[in-house]
Predict the structure.
Amino acid sequence: MLYFYFTVYQFKKCDYMNAFDYEVAVIGGSHAGLAAAHTLGRSKRRTIVFDAGTPRNSAAQSLHNFSTGDGASPNALRSIALAHLNMFENVRYLPQPVSSVNAAATGFQLTAGNEILTVRKIILATGVTDKLFAIEGLAALWGRTVLHCTYCHGWEARDQPALVLVKGAIAWDVAITISHWNPQLTFLLNGSTVEDAEKKTYLQQRGWRLIETPVIKLTRREEMTEALLADGQVVAAPVVYTKPVQVKFNNELAVKLGCEISKSGSVLTDGAMQTSVQGVFAAGDVAHPGYHLVAEAIATGHKAAAFCNNQLCKEDYR
């Protein structure tokens, strides 16, 4: 009789689990999403990964400040991570974006292309999109010879003269860190100015040029990047740093689901990478306002998946 009750329980449990097309949907197929899918695969969870195919660092030739993988190609790392998913027959990779998502009964319903699928849990790893200055040649050099992060590229560019292409409003803050790696700076303020007179004077007293003339074109010539200004002047240096005009958080699905969003646009999570909506987790760049490193994306992907699986285990156990 005890055996009979046990088998009935198992049948009901499996019936509930199989009522969904997948147990977990990972939305985003870059470093965070693939890491999450790896952990879920190892956890025997029926998982589907949706990939829009627009990773943030696809233009970068190499990534740095990544222990055991310093200098590796980010695209190559993604290819390895994707290949590793082949060992898990319970993980499906779908190279399509999710166009809509809704809460449905005890889970969620997603639409991707012509498919409508139901899942129990969601991990959002949708990342961010960098909006750049509208300067000819900038997008082609972005992530290659035009850099944005000293922690990622500062060591390779250390001690060389650098152009710093930023708005005057953030020139002071940017100078604090970049000057540690590159003491000789020329600021291209691209039509803006440093409005704080005291800060402006200090920057100039350091021997740094503050050029307010708009930049119209960037060109890489041999070992130098040249900036053509609107007045015809050309300024060049081996290193160029810039910041995106805007870091757009790809949070549309999170907003649709009702997840709480920070002022910057990142999806708020707790220590378990759980959003404010039960059953929805977030990982990678979309889940932090500014700490955006490949190592962090991978770590939070694994973390979100582990806590997601723990949540599923507790529900199934009851």
